[in-house]
Amino acid sequence: MKRIRAHLFVSFSIAVAFLACSEKTNTSKPTPAMVSAPVVELFPVEVGGQWGYIDKTGKIVINPQFNQALRFAEGLASVKEDGKWGYIDRTGKYIIPVQFEAAGLFSEGLAAVARGEKWGFIDRTGKCVINPQFDEVGPFSEGLAAVRMADKLGYIDRTGKYVINPQYHVVASTFPLFRLVALGLYDFSEGMAAVEVEQKTGFVDRTGKMVIKPQFENAFSFHEGLAPVQIDKKWGFVDRMGKIVIDPRFVSAACFAEGCAAVETERGRWGFVDRTGKIVIVARFDTVRNFTEGLASVRMGDRWGFVDHNDKMVINPQFDLAWGFVGGLASVKLGGRMGYIDHAGRFVWSPQ
């Protein structure tokens, strides 16, 4: 896995697969505060250099006033003012005042925050429950969070106690802003996490037991019962027992989502396979992202569009960039500006 980290911005194929596997649906257990009323999805937008939030109809519900703003997770969103980050609720009220050098999304009730060069975790009240002490952290997933100390990776529980001591090889992220995402590659998913031992990758369970011995050149997380692995420079998929179920024959591969996985063929084009390894969406795209809400954003040439599970281009390539659908909308970039479209490809928030 160290080659992934070391060459993440050099190997385009690996970067595509990494980003696809990093795109996750929030599956954390909702708190009482989250389920007491229907959740209205809010989306960050920029107006005149300031950030606010719109609802699914494109109506502004939190006036643009922040220097930067991230999406909501578990009812709170991190926003930046005067060089510091804090958290607001869905009314735009500060719940946690700006005070951090960096702030991640809430996951399983905790959010990663940075003070100086070190990372720790806070709860939804802003209380520091795990003091900043780590060089890099991932979000909590299945009760554990990946943390980096120097060049070693370990896992902590919600109290900050090591459940799996730092022992696995990991390379520091190249860019500070990337650190909120990078260790997500090592998240626990479906009870296992990919780790590197002596330049080979295997999988451990939540107790630290090696359940699939290190034997792969690279590997990503399990999703929908399968994990992409690299053997002899080719990518295939294994099941939870470590058995190869889709033979390694691809240049690169991403995690499964909605029953299919993105793969790069010998021709240098991306398509999708089903759980049997059958090509279900012809490999003709230059770049792809995972399926979300029934559609996947794909790039042909220099334009992005969206394809459905039937291999039909339902939104023609026309955007400079396009991300996956979340809460009924997808973020797109056109003419250097950001906007949101619905499933029909109509602009709910025009690029501005």
Q: Please, how many helices?
A: 4
Which range best describes the helical content: under 10%, 10-25%, 25-40%, 40-55%, 55-70% or over 70%? under 10%
Structural class: mainly beta
**Low-pLDDT residue intervals, each spanning 5 or more residues:** 1-12, 25-37, 174-181
- Describe the main β-sheet briefly: 4 strands, antiparallel
| CATH structural class of the domain at 1-29 and 191-280 | Mainly Beta
- Radius of gyration in whole Å, from Cα? 20 Å
Rough shape? flat
CATH topology of the domain at 1-29 and 191-280: Lipocalin
Query: What's the total number of strands?
Result: 34
- Approximately what portion of the residues adopt beta-strand conformation? over 45%
Instruction: Report mean pLDDT, rounded to a whole number.
Output: 88
What separation lies between the terminal Cα atoms?
39 Å
**Largest beta sheet: what is the strand line-up?**
4-5-6-7
Architecture per CATH nomenclature, i.e. the level-2 architecture of the domain at 1-29 and 191-280: Beta Barrel
